Amino acid sequence: MAFVLLHFLSPGLCGRFDASPPPPDSRVIMHKKGEVVRYGVISDIHANLEALQAVTAACGKLAVDEYLCTGDIVGYNADPAACLKIIRSLPLAGAVKGNHDHRAVTRAGIDFFQSAAATSIEWTRSQLCRSSAKWLHRLPMSCIVGNITLVHASLHSPDQWYYICNYTDAMASLRLLNTNICFFGHSHVPLAFEKGDMLSGGLYRKIHIHPQRRYLINTGSVGQPRDGNNMAAFAIYDTARAEVELHRVPYDIRATQKKILRAGLPARNAKRLEYGK
Q1: By three-state DSSP, how is residue 207 classified?
Q2: Burial of residue 197 (number of CB atoms within 10 Å: 0-12, 13-18, 19+)
Q3: Residue 241 contacts residue 258 (beta carbons within 8 Å)
Q4: How far is it, in rounded angstroms, from Cα 175 to Cα 170?
Q5: Cα–Cα dist 242/99, whole Å
Q6: pLDDT, tens only, 144-191
């Protein structure tokens, strides 16, 4: 396994807890036959059109059959409607909502968001048509696609938006994992955990999936990376090879930044894209 092993993953990688819990949402399970598929796994797009276009173009070149999305399609950046249009047009095998998605399409309070996030959500609410808002609202908190579970935050409390940043966080979700793999997002940091006889985890490039083990895998962020690398992140899960590989692609950051500032969104949203923080 191509893990860069870390004894402890600092919560600082994940940022602060930035949302109060929404009402509980029932788990929606989507089953899929066991055919061989190459999945493009994407997360935390955050209304970054240029990054999403770069990722879907790369996925096309990598012969992706279907997509899995672990949420937060909107928030922070300036193209929520355009990004939702692309996501809805993809061959999606499964998708779940993130905390920004949830807040954008409900009247739930945003008091616990950081200032930049809260301002962005208020603006995003004004940008979504009824059809897009309805589609986003109907996304489940978690779902199952074959041997894969999708969730935005944690499995043990998907509606509480807890981060998975270290071994303690990981074990709380692994105890509830009934499939081979769980893809998750929320922290914007590509890291993974493997549970066999022992628990290991950390940053990764490529992971061979053992059928008797359990995996929690964060594919990083398409639209707002926070691991010090400003390139858009996504992963390919090749079921024939039983392999998950992380990919990074550059995109036109300047164009995204200009749109953020033109929309009157917080300048911090634009600046952080440059540094991948």
Answers
A1: strand
A2: exposed
A3: no
A4: 9
A5: 30
A6: 999 999 999 999 999 899 999 999 999 999 999 999 999 999 999 999
DSSP 8: -
Q: What is the pLDDT of residue 32?
A: 52
171 phi/psi in degrees, rounded to 5: -60, -35
The domain limits of the chain are 27-275
- What is the pLDDT, as a whole number, of residue 22? 35
Cβ neighbours, 10 Å, residue 202: 16
Secondary structure of 74-108 as H, E, C letters: CCCCCCHHHHHHHHHHCCEEEECCCHHHHHHCCCC
Alpha-carbon distances of 85 from 82, 97, 256, rounded to whole Å? 5, 15, 17
Tokens (6 digits) for 155: 């499995």
138: nearest Cα among 184, 92, 192: 92
Reported as a single tens digit per residue, the pLDDT across 219-238 is: 999 999 999 999 999 999 99
User: Which residues face 3 on adjacent strands?
Assistant: 204
238, amino acid identity: D
* Phi, psi of 248, deg, nearest 5: -130, 140
List the one residue out of 100, 128, 122 whose CA is nearest residue 224.
100
**Residue 229: HSE in the Cβ half-sphere, 13 Å Cα cutoff:** 17
Helices 80-89 & 49-61, crossing angle to 10 degrees? 20
CA 98 to mean position of chain CA atoms: 8
pLDDT in tens, 118-133: 899 999 999 999 999 9
Q: Which CATH class for the 27-275 domain?
A: alpha beta
Question: Whose structure tokens read 């993953």?
Answer: 9
Write down the pTM of the prediction.
0.89
Query: Is the CB of residue 263 less than 8 Å from the CB of residue 123?
Result: yes
